[in-house]
Design a protein that fits this description.
By secondary structure, the protein is an alpha+beta fold. The chain has 2 domains: about 35 residues; about 90 residues, K homology (KH) domain (GMP Synthetase, Chain A, domain 3). It contains 3 helices and 7 strands; from the N terminus they run E-E-E-H-E-E-H-H-E-E. It has a 3-stranded antiparallel β-sheet, with no helix packed on it. The longest helix has 23 residues. It starts with a strand and ends with a strand.
Length: about 140
C-alpha cells in the first residue's frame, strides 16, 4: 500500500489513499486557513472511528440496532511531556442495549487495529530521493 502526499499550498497537505483524497490544514493561529483537520486530528480520529467500526460490526453481527450508540474519546495530556498521556473511549449505549453484550462491546472496541499499531509500533524510516535516486 502506498499513500502519496502532496503539498497543496499555504499550510495544506493532501494525501491520496486508495484513490481518495484526504485534505489537511493547520488552524488559523498556526498560519493555516482552518479549512480541514490537522494531521494530528486525523490520527486521533482514526483511533476513535476504528473503535467505532468494531462496535458497529459487533452490533450488526448480533442484529442489535446501532441507533443512539455513540463513542466519545477523551484525551488527557501528560503534564511533563505535553503529549497525550491517556486516551479514554466511552461507548454510550441506549438503555435497551442488551445487558449481556455491554461488557463484550467494550472488549471488541479494544480490537481496533489502529490502537494495536500504537501499542506495537512499526519501524519508521524516512529518506530522500532526487531524480528517483536515493540520497
Amino acid at each position: 500500500m502506498n499513500i502519496t502526499v502532496t503539498l497543496t499550498g499555504g499550510r495544506k497537505v493532501e494525501a491520496e489513499v486508495g484513490g481518495r483524497r484526504i485534505e489537511t490544514d493547520q488552524p488559523k493561529q498556526s498560519g493555516g486557513d482552518g479549512s480541514a483537520p490537522t494531521p494530528f486530528d486525523l490520527f486521533l480520529a482514526s483511533i476513535a472511528t476504528c473503535s467505532g467500526y468494531y462496535v458497529l460490526d459487533f452490533c450488526r453481527a448480533r442484529n442489535i440496532s446501532t441507533e443512539r450508540i455513540q463513542l466519545v474519546m477523551r484525551l488527557e495530556r501528560h503534564a511533563d511531556k505535553g503529549m497525550i498521556g491517556k486516551v479514554s473511549i466511552e461507548i454510550q449505549l441506549p438503555a435497551e442495549f442488551p445487558e449481556r453484550y455491554r461488557v463484550p462491546v467494550a472488549r471488541v472496541a479494544d480490537l481496533c487495529s489502529v490502537k494495536k499499531h500504537i501499542l506495537d509500533p512499526p519501524a519508521f524510516e524516512t529518506y530522500v530521493t532526487v531524480g528517483g535516486v536515493r540520497v
